[in-house]
Every structure is written in structure tokens, then in C-alpha cells.
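Give me C-alpha cells for this 306-residue protein.
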Amino acid sequence: MIHVQNIIDAIGLGAVFALIAVGIGLVFGVLRLINFAYGQLIMLAAYAIAFTDSWPDAASVLVAVLVAVAASLLMERIAFRPLRSADPSTMLVATFALAYLLENAALVQYTYRRQGIIGDPVGTLAQLSRAVTIGSLHVRWVSILAIGAGVVSLAALALLLNRTSIGLQMRAASMDFRTARLLGVRADTVITVAVAVAGVLAAVAAVVLSIGSASVTPTTGLYETLFVLVGVVAGGIDRLLSATLGGFAIGFAISIVGAELPSSGETPFTSNVYMPSVIYLAVIVALLLRPAGLFARGGPGSVERV
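Here you go.
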């Protein structure tokens, strides 16, 4: 039986997944690229938090944002830009390669730094891992943070896309990049801004995930990103709004299903052998019924992707 407590937890996880979905959808809208290495951006930001654990909380979070943005821009400059005119499958393989390279680099560093002990504790903003009791409900502050961060980030992104010149250029580029360039849209600037914003969103997600788990490992952000990618496709990847709703829906569903099925007590993504099967089966059924996505517009409409 689903309780109010489960719904509150599900909304919190859905908000984190929505943040990740926005970052993935934003890059896809401009570059037409599904970035499988997005989870590693979250991992790098989370490690930045762990390594600056003794710093003031605000400074630690700021370093995480700077690391995520720098890594995102470097990823675009070194790997994506040279392949921009290549076949989409080539760019997709490049993101896979980056993802595994960064994950294995994180694994290797434990061999030299902590003699094989995997995981780093996170004490930054540790007070937010506590719960506030309201009657029979126990709401963790990190869940409230996730919901608040999601709302603020989405509102800020909406203002950027609708109220600024660079935002309008991003929307034009998402509709038809080649034509937009002919009309004066600065391609490199638009891509740089989109990638940088995606990096900021990855850092925000990293902060929430780090507080929630109180530790960082090479797989931090990996399982979340894989599930979000499924949610983005199920929601409708051709539009940022539908992709975001798909990300939220998959996070909500994972939390609800995980709470109802038996668990071995490990992480939410590996503790339940039945949960991934249930989620993926639901996604397959959803795509059979709505191939364009659950939240995609029915019939011909705007092709604007952001």
C-alpha cells in the first residue's frame, strides 16, 4: 500500500531526476547528442564536494559547480566539437568512451590513494540529511532541497530561454541549427552556454545526491543517469518539457516501486532485483502505446526542442 511518506520521497527523487533530465535534454536539443557521460559530470562534482569536505559549505558547493562546468566545457571542446559534423552514432560512441574513461579513472585513483577502499565520505551540508517530523511523516531536508532546487533551476532556465538573447538563439538553434546559423545565430556561443548550463544542473544534482547518500563512489550519478535516459525517451526526447516530465516520472516511479517491492537493504538502484524489470516493462508498454513519448504533443506541432 502506498503511503503519503512514499509519495513525498518519490517527489524528492523525481525532482532530482528532472534536474538531470533537463541537463541531458538541453544538450540534445542543441547538439542532437545524447550524452551518456552526463553521469560522470555528476560524479566529478560529487568528488569535488568530498575533497573539499573540510571547507565551508558554500565554498565546497561553489567548487563543485566550477568543476562540473569546467568538465562539461572541456568535454565539449575536446570530444564533441571535433566530431560535430560526424555521424550521430560516432558522437554517441564518443560519449560512451568518455563515460567509461572517467569512471575507470575514478576507480584507479583508489588504488594509490586509499588502498582499494572504494568510496569517500561527504560531510558537506550534512545537517540536511536529517528529517523533520510532521505527525507520522518524516521528511528529510534533502528532499525539500531537491524539490526547491528543481523548481528554482527550472524557473531560471525558463527565464534564460524566453527572456534573454542567448536563450532565444538556443531555441532557434534547437529548431533548425543550420538555418539559425545562416540567420546570424552564433553556433559556438550557443553550444557553450547550453553545455555550461548542463554542467551547473549536474552540480546541483551532485549536491543533492551527495547529501542523500553521505558518500561518493565512482558510480555516483551512473545509475541515476541511466534511468533518466530511459525516462527522457519515454517522456519524449524531442521537447525539453516532455523530457523533463519523463525524468520526473521515472524518478517518481522508481521510488514508489522500490518502496513496494522487497529490498535487500542496499542502494535504491541495486537493492531490488525486480525494480528495474518492472520499470523497463512499464516503459516498453508506454512506448508501444505512445511511440513519440508519454508527454509529447499529439499531432503536428512546433518542432522547438528547448
